[in-house]
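Researcher: Quick one. two chains, 744 residues in total.
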Amino acid sequence: MGFTLQQIQHAASSRFVHHLAALIALGAATVLCELLSPFLLHINLLMIYLVTVVIAALNLHLQSALVTVVGGALIYNYLYIAPRYAFNFEEKEYLATFFGFLVTGVVISSLTKHTRDKGMMLELREAETANLYELSRKLAAACTSQDIADAVINTIEGCSKNRAALFLEIDGRLRQTATSSDLLITQEQRQLITKAFKEAATSESGYQYGNSLYCEPIRTPSRVIGILVINAEWSQESTPDHHRRLIASCADQAGMALERVRLVHETELANNEMARQKLERALLNSVSHDLRTPLATITGVISSVLDEGELLDSWTRNELLENARAEAERLNCFVGKLLDITRLQAHAVVLKIELCDVQDLIGCALTAMQRLLQGRQVQISQAEGLPLVPMDMVLMNQVLVNLLDNAHKYSPPDRPIQIAARCNEGQLVLQVIDQGPGVPEHELVKIFDKFYRIAIPEGIKGTGLGLSICHGIVEAHGGSIYAENLQSGGFCITIHLPLQQSNHAGDAA
Amino acid sequence: MIVRHSDTNQPRILVVDDEVAIQRFLRTVLGAKDFQLCTAASGQEALQAAALFKPDIVLLDLGLPDMDGVEVLKRLREWSDVPVIVLSVREREDDKVQALDAGADDYLTKPFGMSELLARVRAALRRTVQQTVEPLFVADDLVVDLSCRKVTLAGKEVQLTPTEYDLLRLLVTHAGKVITHNQILKQLWGVAYIDQPQVLRVNISNLRRKLETDPTRPHYIITEPGVGYLLRVAP
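Model:
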């Protein structure tokens, strides 16, 4: 069922060649004997035939070797046992020699054949082990089912020269995950494979034949998750048995690797889910508070102006409307920050890294904060000759604006804010320092968490998002950000940005 | 398409926005400020209105039901130079750059204050009136005389390299309006330099060093992060 006509023809012609070689060897041996017979006892000539038998057994099929055994015995009897040119089966001594030779020849032939087969088998096993080792190495490195499927197909192609395809059950349907490049699976074959898959799921049975396909189920400890299909036109030199073992090992390894990938994926999902739920809770709390508070003010103001506008004097009305506008601005700002953190969280931010002028960066942040920082002293100390630094100017501007906003909010209005920029060990060091009370030591790390607000001071309106946005942006740049209370009093946030853009930076976003 | 006819000498504004609330708000406020108003709620309507109503200025929202605002802008620019101010909730710099590169004159992020909008509208109208560039640009202490390539700061002449001068001239001819990085790079260095904004940054930095009293708090050349630069005009 696995043999094609061509292979059978090939096998037959190779048998013929081997027989021919056996006959030629016998002829050569006879010529040698003829040449040596004047100088040697005839009994010694038997050794020459024995050597021929050994050589034939080493190189030819067992049947051809047996041809040399029988042929050698007959020729020896015919030529060198008196009378010459006639068979003599009567003299007991010669008969003993004849049968002795026959038995020795047969034993040698089969022993040699056995040893040779064992050697070949060992070689095959070794190649197989090497291939399987290589496969397990590849599977250990594989991160997706696709990688695993490709590795398995490559291995089978590499060590059996057969074409293969791997089907995996995804969302309840059997999908062709990887296929040898020149293998085409017909609709009919596909039905057969689906059937084999279904049968494998209910029974322990291994493989199925049919339509020149060989199917091996891929199992995990709990169930059958796919099927490995080999285009089973076995080649002559290795037996299906050997292939079966190889294919079974491949399927086993693939099953384990797929299970591992699935478990890793599930753990990841579970972790993400947990983080998502936690964030969602914080988000909902924050949203309900931070969105509703300004909306409450705005609604209150508008309704009072609409309902009793005529009764209010113009100063009160202005005061009310001004209040509503400030709250609307705050609301807009909050929504902006919520969008920013969501984008950062969803990895939807793609950094646009360009070489930027640090002076320009500071200038932009100060321009953006102009209105808020009016009347506040801002000292800038920038080291001479700062190089252009690779960064996403828009995002880093946002970081600086957030830091300035915090410095402004959390320090007394009559104390200066400092911005310092310098280079140190291949990094840009950017600091924003205020003269405020700082942050309790144990909260220094937490302030970068989402929706975290320090307990003090009273009455300051924040979103708890500013610093976590900064953290997200700086990390996406491959840099670091940290906070510290200064010995001399005051609070400092330091940013380190690499001067050389590493590959990491782009990915992290 | 809703047109409010009144005195024909009033500037004509085409408002393109599908949000009824915004339409209503703009109609009330701009109508009260002596503008002639026409509103369109879709891209197709906007293009028709632009041809029939012949507005002096277009206020364009980017999120339209039938096509993207940028697409409307591109089609409009095929035959019209009418100033377009984009009003959008999209606050990302990429969107701004896209709109400005497509030919928008200005970009205002929603929500915006009425005074801000009116200032932008007036500035855009003023630019249309004085089509030809004044050869003499004055903003506070900075005087740029385009006719004899002379730049003075508080009466003292400033020496600029040819590139710096070309850059300043480009900013002067578009004073009060943001020019995107791409537009500057294309005009001054050619299309091949579009991926190399550092050339521009270095020249801007040099120009500031020569023109600004405190380069970290620029007074004349303002950076719009991620978008481009603009030269501040005297208020």
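Chain B has eight helices and 13 strands.
Researcher: Thanks, that's what I needed.
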